[in-house]
Amino acid sequence: MSMHRTLVLVRHGQSEWNAKNLFTGWKNPDLTPEGIDEARRAGKELKKLDLLFSVGFTSALLRAQHTLDLIFEELGQSNVPTVKDRALNERHYGDLSGLNKDEAREKWGEEQVRLWRRSYDVPPPGGESLKDTVARVVPFYVQRILPPVMRGERVLVAAHGNSLRALCMVLEQLTPESVTTLELATGVPIVYKLNADSTVASKTVLEH
């Protein structure tokens, strides 16, 4: 069983607001038809690896939950227990939520919006920075996600760009500077194998 310390991270498929170039955060749009296809393709890629999952984790938001459900459906594993928790939610964009990104740049300026989107510790008005997101994601990872992985179970997490960047920061020991440049494509599984000390033994990105 020790060889099965497998953790798979998947960013949700394209959402309706991704398609409209809107800041989404804790708002709750569903997947687009393209997003549904991306989630199904992720399931098909994982099926090639013959992975049997013990548990799934996702956020309190529909786009991530729908992605997890579709992946498990493709795997023929719809009976896998799942945990939904807002600790894995996308970072909260505060006053930017629901705004078009181009309109936000016009209102606040290119540099200010870039700082809110890509800095580590500068939050948008009324929202969370990536540092704030890390502060809620990492304890949940340590307490809930990591223990089954270390018991030799295979765990699937379907979440969001920033909550998954927070997980990648821990797993890959990224600095606040390097994590800000990390981009995660929608619907592309990242398969980690962990060592006995919970460090990463290998990382595989399953590009379609």
TrEMBL record:
<feature type="binding site">
    <location>
        <begin position="11"/>
        <end position="18"/>
    </location>
    <ligand>
        <name>substrate</name>
    </ligand>
</feature>
<feature type="active site" description="Proton donor/acceptor">
    <location>
        <position position="90"/>
    </location>
</feature>
<comment type="similarity">
    <text>Belongs to the phosphoglycerate mutase family. BPG-dependent PGAM subfamily.</text>
</comment>
<keyword id="KW-0324">Glycolysis</keyword>
<dbReference type="InterPro" id="IPR029033">
    <property type="entry name" value="His_PPase_superfam"/>
</dbReference>
<feature type="binding site">
    <location>
        <begin position="24"/>
        <end position="25"/>
    </location>
    <ligand>
        <name>substrate</name>
    </ligand>
</feature>
<feature type="active site" description="Tele-phosphohistidine intermediate">
    <location>
        <position position="12"/>
    </location>
</feature>
<dbReference type="GO" id="GO:0006096">
    <property type="term" value="P:glycolytic process"/>
</dbReference>
<keyword id="KW-0413">Isomerase</keyword>
<dbReference type="Pfam" id="PF00300">
    <property type="entry name" value="His_Phos_1"/>
</dbReference>
<dbReference type="InterPro" id="IPR005952">
    <property type="entry name" value="Phosphogly_mut1"/>
</dbReference>
<feature type="binding site">
    <location>
        <begin position="117"/>
        <end position="118"/>
    </location>
    <ligand>
        <name>substrate</name>
    </ligand>
</feature>
<feature type="binding site">
    <location>
        <begin position="161"/>
        <end position="162"/>
    </location>
    <ligand>
        <name>substrate</name>
    </ligand>
</feature>
<feature type="binding site">
    <location>
        <position position="63"/>
    </location>
    <ligand>
        <name>substrate</name>
    </ligand>
</feature>
<keyword id="KW-0312">Gluconeogenesis</keyword>
<feature type="binding site">
    <location>
        <begin position="90"/>
        <end position="93"/>
    </location>
    <ligand>
        <name>substrate</name>
    </ligand>
</feature>
<protein>
    <recommendedName>
        <fullName>2,3-bisphosphoglycerate-dependent phosphoglycerate mutase</fullName>
        <ecNumber>5.4.2.11</ecNumber>
    </recommendedName>
</protein>
<feature type="binding site">
    <location>
        <position position="101"/>
    </location>
    <ligand>
        <name>substrate</name>
    </ligand>
</feature>
<feature type="site" description="Transition state stabilizer">
    <location>
        <position position="160"/>
    </location>
</feature>
<dbReference type="GO" id="GO:0006094">
    <property type="term" value="P:gluconeogenesis"/>
</dbReference>
<comment type="function">
    <text>Catalyzes the interconversion of 2-phosphoglycerate and 3-phosphoglycerate.</text>
</comment>
<dbReference type="InterPro" id="IPR001345">
    <property type="entry name" value="PG/BPGM_mutase_AS"/>
</dbReference>
<comment type="subunit">
    <text>Homodimer.</text>
</comment>
<dbReference type="InterPro" id="IPR013078">
    <property type="entry name" value="His_Pase_superF_clade-1"/>
</dbReference>
<dbReference type="GO" id="GO:0004619">
    <property type="term" value="F:phosphoglycerate mutase activity"/>
</dbReference>
<comment type="pathway">
    <text>Carbohydrate degradation; glycolysis; pyruvate from D-glyceraldehyde 3-phosphate: step 3/5.</text>
</comment>
